[in-house]
Automatic annotation (TrEMBL):
Gene3D superfamilies: Cytochrome b-c1 complex subunit 7 (1.10.1090.10). SUPFAM superfamilies: 14 kDa protein of cytochrome bc1 complex (Ubiquinol-cytochrome c reductase) (SSF81524). The keyword Cytoplasm does not apply. It comes from Anolis carolinensis. This is Cytochrome b-c1 complex subunit 7. Keywords: Electron transport, Membrane, Mitochondrion, Mitochondrion inner membrane, Respiratory chain, Transport. One of its GO terms (biological process) is mitochondrial electron transport, ubiquinol to cytochrome c. Component of the ubiquinol-cytochrome c oxidoreductase, a multisubunit transmembrane complex that is part of the mitochondrial electron transport chain which drives oxidative phosphorylation. InterPro entries: QCR7, QCR7_sf.
Amino acid sequence: WLGRSRAAASGRLLDGVRKWYYNLAGFNKLGLVRDDTIYEDADVKEALKRLPEDMYNERLFRIKRALDLTMRQQILPKEQWVKYEEDKPYLQPYLKEVIRERLEREEWEKK
């Protein structure tokens, strides 16, 4: 029983640290989600091409709004900040697929 309790407390502490770090990063105060901040290398660019149009347009809106806020040295009102619990990785499934395909292609080309 004590082990479970300790694990639960440890999990809550880790989650608390993650939330703290998420807010410290600050992109959520501009209305961005984590996947909006991934550096756009070739794999990411290919994954972006595979996004459904509505998801791609939502991403563009968030990025344009964040750039506008940054230019004006402002942040969104606190009630509009993206919360840690609401930040879902929308690009990750596409990116994992692109990377898997690229690695397969590279492996095939070695032969």
